[in-house]
Design a protein that fits this description.
Structural class of chain B: alpha+beta
Number of helices of chain B: 3
Order of helices and strands of chain A: EEEE
Largest sheet of chain A: 4 strands, antiparallel
Shape of chain B: elongated
Number of helices of chain A: 0
Strand content of chain A: over 45%
Structural class of chain A: mainly beta
Helix content of chain A: under 10%
Oligomer: heterodimer
Shape of chain A: elongated
Largest sheet of chain B: 6 strands, antiparallel
Order of helices and strands of chain B: EHHHEEEEE
Largest interface: A-B, 12 and 13 residues
Distance between the termini of chain A: 11 Å
Radius of gyration of chain A: 15 Å
């Protein structure tokens, strides 16, 4: 498995004392040339429930014959 | 480095440029800090057994190193509101020589006041680009 893509989108900077809760959602799974491309989005909110940052990762899972 | 980042800048202006040398020690430290103990990042035999050209730097380590010059250029005058990359080529870290990651950060787009809005990074190792679409969105205070 290799890391294909990564991005972060912030509504505000994270500061000391922040309590963040992350929710990870698998947003897409695609097959491309025998490999699986899995995209997951982790949404992080602060203690008040306000959105702080979303991290999106695409992982490439190699197929058996790849 | 170009000082006073809150002022208007032309598209294409280089705002930061740096070479960062990393070693196997850097990878061990990053493995510990991140919790990513995949042995392809510290064992030559394991890297070779899965067909890799050598022990590789963690993509997220390269990503982090590459944005640091932009964060320092911004200083207290702004912050990074978005950052994304594609890991297009691996950074092979030689056991003796390590690897050098070269970073050039250029203004890609500007806001209505002419201040940088998006900074694009060119990140290279061993003469080849290692990150694709490495884009940093900046916000000035």
């Amino acid at each position: 498995m290799v890391h294909g893509e990564q991005s972060f989108t912030y509504d505000r900077p994270i500061v000391a004392g922040d309590e963040l809760t992350a929710t990870l959602t698998v947003t897409s799974v695609k097959t491309l040339g025998g490999n699986a491309m899995v995209t997951a989005q982790s949404t992080m909110n602060d203690a008040e429930g306000e959105h702080v940052v979303t991290a999106t990762s695409t992982l490439v899972v190699r197929g058996d014959d790849a | 480095m170009t000082a006073a980042p809150a002022t208007a800048l032309e598209v294409g202006t280089v705002v930061a440029e740096r070479d960062v040398h990393i070693t196997r020690d850097s990878l061990v430290r990053y493995a510990g800090a991140s919790g990513d103990f995949n042995p392809i990042h510290y064992r030559d035999d394991v890297a070779a057994s899965v067909g890799l050209p050598g022990v590789l730097a963690h993509g997220m380590l390269t990503m982090g190193i590459a944005v640091q010059p932009v964060a320092e250029w911004l200083g207290d005058s702004g912050w990074v509101a978005g950052y994304g990359v594609r890991f297009t080529r691996p950074v092979v870290v030689d056991p003796e020589q390590g690897a050098t990651v070269g970073i050039v950060a250029k203004v890609a787009t500007v806001d209505e006041d002419g201040r940088p809005k998006r900074i694009d990074l060119t990140v290279t190792a061993a003469g080849q680009t290692v990150l694709g679409k490495a884009q940093v969105t900046v916000v000035f205070r």
